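2024-03-11 09:14:02 INFO receiving multi-entity request
2024-03-11 09:14:02 INFO entity count = four
2024-03-11 09:14:03 INFO echoing inputs for audit
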Amino acid sequence: MIYNYESEDKVLLAVDCIIFGFDAEELKILLIKRDFEPEKGKWSLMGGFLKNHEALDDAANRILLHLTGINNVYMEQLYSFSKIDRDPGQRTLSVAYYALIKIEDHNEELNQQYAAEWFSVSEAPSLIFDHNIMVSRAINRLRYRASTEPIGFELLPKKFTMRQLQKLYEAILDEKLDKRNFINKINGLDILIKLDEKDKSSSRKGSFLYMFDEEKYSNKLEQGFSFKL
Amino acid sequence: MIYNYESEDKVLLAVDCIIFGFDAEELKILLIKRDFEPEKGKWSLMGGFLKNHEALDDAANRILLHLTGINNVYMEQLYSFSKIDRDPGQRTLSVAYYALIKIEDHNEELNQQYAAEWFSVSEAPSLIFDHNIMVSRAINRLRYRASTEPIGFELLPKKFTMRQLQKLYEAILDEKLDKRNFINKINGLDILIKLDEKDKSSSRKGSFLYMFDEEKYSNKLEQGFSFKL
DNA sequence: TCAAAAGTGTTCACCGTACACCCATGG
DNA sequence: CCATGGGTGTACGGTGAACACTTTTGA
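2024-03-11 09:21:47 INFO inference complete, emitting structure
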């Protein structure tokens, strides 16, 4: 006996992306103003529908590329949402992904084309459907992941100062951190390269720039090291 | 302009369940022998297809009830799998859930009806499709969740001994724990009720039975308590 | 010379971990 | 009376948290 797949229901499957950025002070998300019904004119996550020949990860990447012009970014599947009436237009499921991008890489022109705007996560408007729930789940996941794996660097320029890194973690965790303790901990991990260069934009003295040493990190991983912030 | 949902592809969506149980020594999963093609005769997780009028959680519960006769169990959505050719029969996505059940509650007759069998997670056979990946993801999630939230009790009878609880955590975390440290830590959490009853089945002296105090736990939660094992 | 941010170590409290002996009971 | 598992406390080291002053330099 062969299972008769044809007798089963098929569903519409959306993919929605929570796109995080960091602007030196605050954690931000990129939202678009919807230009079609239902809920036209309201703010929403970026999304699209899964195509038949496509895996979910590919769909998420396609949507992100389309909207931001950026490729090869850190993404993680978050959760699948399926309440019957979550989209009043039609029964639709949605698989949420979150992405971490460097705001500076982001193509400003596309923002205008799609009426997209960056919002601080604490001041973001209310969103359509269940998108608010998606965002808060994404923040939780990001908090967990960022204290367990070195993904924070995805939100910073290649070269960054200790102060920027600290501000980033403060924004992600939503709590103040002690400067000395933070630096001690980061240095203890021994996964950064200290450059000779200084960034003079933020102070008269200037502060040293660092880079994440991916190679060193993966070597340490193999030797049982585990990132903990 | 109204969005034209009709032009988008629809997909078949399966729900597969990783069902965990605990038999006093080992962590186990419930598997079924497939009686239809493709992959007839091979071991697999239990699954079914999402219906149009159904949310994912409901589908997962339906499948679990159908196969085990148990309702109202702890379940958590795990991840959605979408590789194009994951099911050679037809393009299908699958949303995986894991469930924790008390083995003793489980209806033995249904096991025969569906050719289902309990396997220790360390000795389980190789499974169809991407089900092995689902299982290993489920174990990881269970480990994390069980050290963060008091879900271990879902796998034990209502009344249990400290020794049983310790063995359970040893099975989940796959490491030996020190008896005194374990008990100290659990007692420190102060979320168990010590009963006057003893379980005499495991020793001549007998060991005290405990119950999880859900009410106390949720009170403590509200006061900022957090479970950490 | 002063304002503004960068950089730098130490102390203390608490938690996690290691560890060994007596107790109660049924056979 | 003895074999079997149940039950109990302490000491130590390491980690996380609190905390303040000096340095640099451009304006």
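2024-03-11 09:21:48 INFO post-check: The domain at 11-148 of chain A is CATH 3.90.79.10 (Nucleoside Triphosphate Pyrophosphohydrolase).
2024-03-11 09:21:48 INFO post-check: The helical segments of chain A are 56-68, 108-113, 131-146, 162-173, 179-189, 214-222.
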